[in-house]
Amino acid sequence: MSDSNPQLPMLVARRMDLVAEEVRYVARPGLMALPSGTMTVLLFMSPQLFTGYFLIWAIWWPAPPTWHAWWIAAGWTGLVASLLVGVIVLLLRRNPGFALGVIRAPFIRLTVTDRRVVWTLPWVTAPLLEIGLERVTGGILGSVDKKGRGNAAMMLVPGDPSADIDGNIHFDRLPNVSGFVAALERMG
Length: 188
Known about the structure:
This protein has 188 residues and is of the alpha+beta class. The protein contains 4 helices and 9 strands. A 4-stranded antiparallel beta sheet has the order 3-4-5-6, with helices on one face.
């Protein structure tokens, strides 16, 4: 049965049995969802940030005594800032998907229901990724720490386009990771 809604550009399909999905697992990992190398990158960036701060300090200390000196200091500061922005733009143009993924990672919500696995963002109505029950074959539990966070893999059917070469999707540092794997096992 389909209804036509004047506000939607396409037909809306409604379920005949009206059975709601049962949510079995929800994870909002927050900052723990950042890739494991993020802190290492920040650590290696800190000397460059300190050097940049020292360069700006050297430009502006002592305070420029005349308008001509002030304009020279402002010009050098603008040059340093434009070089910094240029390097950032160059890096983002080469790896836009990775940068977008790192920025979005703390906000992604992972939900496992009895019918599908869904990745969503709070400010987007459509899911980032949705994998139906027919594509999931189970889960693999990895190492777990004493707080229940750990690694897992979701096993997909052979040849699934969302899977890696082994047919899995890997998750790092998920909260209540054993609950996630149990929810995947109960999907089938």
